[in-house]
Amino acid sequence: MPSALPATPLTWIDSAPGDVPVPIQWGVPWPRGVLVEAAPMQLRGPGEGSGTDVDTWVTARWPDGSVKWTGHAALAGGAEQRELVLAADGGGDEPGAERPGSVRVLEEDGAIVVDTGVLRLEVAPGEDAPIRRLVVDGREVGVAGRIVASSAASAQPQAPRREHTVRTTGIRVERSGAVQAVLRLEGHHEVDGEQVLPFVLRLYATAGSTRLRAVHTIIWDADPERLFLTALGLRLQVPMRAALPDRHVRLAGSEGGFLTEAVQGVTGLRRDPGAEVRAAQIAGRPTPPQGSWAPEVSRRLHHVPAWDAWTLRQITADGYGVAKRTAADRPWIPAGGGTRSRGYAYLGDVQGGIGLGLRDFWRLVPTQLDVAGARGDLAEVTAWMYAPSAEPMDLRFYHDGLGQETFADQLDALEITYEDYEPGFGDARGIARTHELSIDAFAATPSADHLAELAAATSLPPQLCVPPSRLRAARVLGTWDVVDRSTPQRARIEDRLDFLREFYRGQVEQRRWYGFWDYGDVMHTYDPDRHQWRYDVGGYAWDNSELSPDLWLWTDFLRSGDAGAYRLAEAMTRHTGEVDQYHVGRFAGLGTRHNVQHFGCSAKQLRVSSAVYRRHFYYLTADERTGELLDEVASSEEALLRVDATRKVRSDVYAPDRRALAIGLGTDLGALLGAWLTAWERHGDAAAHEKLRAAMSGIGRLPQGFFTGEALWDLDARRFAVDRDRVQVSHLAAVFGMVEIIAELTDLLEDEGFTAAWHEYCRFYLATPEQQTERFGAPLQGISLVPAYSRLLAVVAADEGDTALARRAWDAFHGGLDDQLNGNSLVAQEDWRLRRIDGPGVLEPVDEAAFVSTNDAAQYGLAAIANLALIGDDLPESAVPEATAEPAEPDAARVSDAAAESDAAAEPEATAVPALTSTKES
């Protein structure tokens, strides 16, 4: 790293870690040609002096081979690290060289051993309990760490439960640096002799830290008709050496507090053991020798109950209850409750213990924390990702098909519920879910303040990022610029962008969009008659990335640095990348269109599994699981051999063919370009680079370029056939990330034919009928989503410096073109204010914006951001409309019709249609 390279400022996205240091991981972009190779770096606070060691690795490269993105890991915390920069480490060590205090990885007795200097972790492959030992200060404080699970053969709550045998079949060191080591464990569950539910468990160990970060992914491949999950958790056993009064349990509440208990309590008794004894037990310190206690207590201590088990059950997002009992054959005694637990438990004694926490504990309900066996020599603490006290998980499809046996029936039903149903396609097999957990090892029971900081960092892990100006200077992740409120016109648009983001943040909470499979997604369309999102109406329910809300939120964060935008986008990426995408089975590599259930729609498509929606999170965090998701779709075109997305509306004879595979030059192409570009810049993937070049060249040679609509791809030769000469328009082609990924691609690779074809598409999609007739012989039909497509005009206007075209782009964005072309209800809404709805017409009071649908919000956001960056200087003063005095009444017809027109997603493109007709992608 050149010594002249200036230090990179870093900001905490929301709050900095407390005084207890915790492991952190983040990404940094670099302008092209600035950084040749990764080199030792440090985190430094204000002023001079030594910094904190940082692991650095390359996560992407520019075409010239220079570093584009780096990933970093460090231990951060304390007041001196509230303001940080990333700077060159003057020590001169080679990357990966061991330094004093480095984490060490070795093999001993058939186990992989990781030594952080303060924690020794032993992990053994091939065992049911792969986390063999956690050792602090030479003592075992945790043993036999494992995944535990059970299931039933029916959805009935009283159905017998079968304990799973969870096998770890492989382990490898995925990353090993001076600061952090990452172990990747994989395995499966065994139920009634069947191997199901493959999983991946990553363990992150950091030098100088006794905290392990655990990231668990389970892939659902079981038959939903025969297996109903009843419990899924991470459990560790804890050796208990001290006397019963010196054994401690802590369970986190909602406001930073804890239930503070001992296995055998000596406070509140009829006789007082002494103030020093009571204070020590509450603080978790060793109590004085019992001989020094008041004899009225010490000689009667055997009469004081010793409690063996505790449970904290968060079955809903709004409430948890705590109970404890003395033995398995004794009743549970209520011990309190609250709203939203931070999801952290401690079990141990004055000689050591384990803290175990689950991130998003109350958001990913039903969840649970259990302590058991606390009276014995080996107790256990479990963080349940699916609570055993909840009803069995039921992943069967939600209706019986309603007689929709033929494509004709299914297309007819689409016209009423907007649901694209097909027997056998509403299948959960292949989806996944990822949870993040924390495992803390202690040499003794920690103080309340110490535990509170660790619980807070589990509930909301601190996250570093470079500020928007530094991100912008690196010229990464598409077309955007930092927030600019320098004119009333700009400020008006920025206010609306803020409104949309904050509206969805509020809706997540008010509508309780939480749960094991649901958290992170938002709903698609609103029903103003019921004052309710259409959670139960076919294709209008869960959004599943429709029209790119993930991309909008990430771009919003890049330019604003807003913590709310980041947390929304982070949760959405964790959800859509796992739950809405298939990872194994016949649909692997594809995602599912929006539905009442995330997996319910029969439209299985690349547009949902798109790498375009995952790249931001990967590059900003260097998250290994997200990198795995990106690798899964690196050759996702192969999935189109198994599923023809347009099978229901084809008028030609077509069967998927390796030598002539139909690729839509819209939603398919955008996803493929994103997958190939990401594989190339992350891994230097030569095949991905070849496919990028060939695709660009082929599109440039098609007589109608992007207006061809669909072209045939040879999977083996990696090229398009270029003899198709027709015009086919889809209004969805460029609203699933294609605009954004092509902006990156044309900046990286030169291809004059491709660039010309793209500019032609950008110019003519919203050209006047006369201009379209001159080019194509007739006006293009089916043009809609005009405000969204305004950013295509902006691309050409910016590249050519065409002020008149820039004005037309702004007219299109604000709905100023012909009314029949408008396709976003937001542009027709002058008064953007919330309307409070309460009373008997709603379950709970809500803030309503009936004019908002997620399609419109996402595309309004993306178009506004791109237009401000490209042609912001041409924004006309007339773009600031007068605000109405009172909140507008919801217009049910407008919301319903505009949303439906914006997203005819289940009506796919046909491969052979008359020229100049409109088709709709599925």
From TrEMBL:
UniProt signal peptide: none
Pfam families from the UniProt entry: PcRGLX_1st, PcRGLX_2nd, PcRGLX_3rd
Top-rank taxon: Bacteria
Domain PcRGLX/YetA-like central beta-sandwich intervals: 103-455
Residue segments, region Disordered: 879-922
InterPro entries in alphabetical order: PcRGLX/YetA-like, PcRGLX/YetA_2nd, PcRGLX/YetA_3rd, PcRGLX_1st
Domain PcRGLX/YetA-like N-terminal RIFT barrel residues, every copy: 8-87
Domain PcRGLX/YetA-like C-terminal alpha/alpha toroid: 461-875
Composition-biased stretches (Low complexity): 893-915
Protein name per UniProt: Tat pathway signal sequence domain protein
Lineage: Bacteria, Bacillati, Actinomycetota, Actinomycetes, Micrococcales
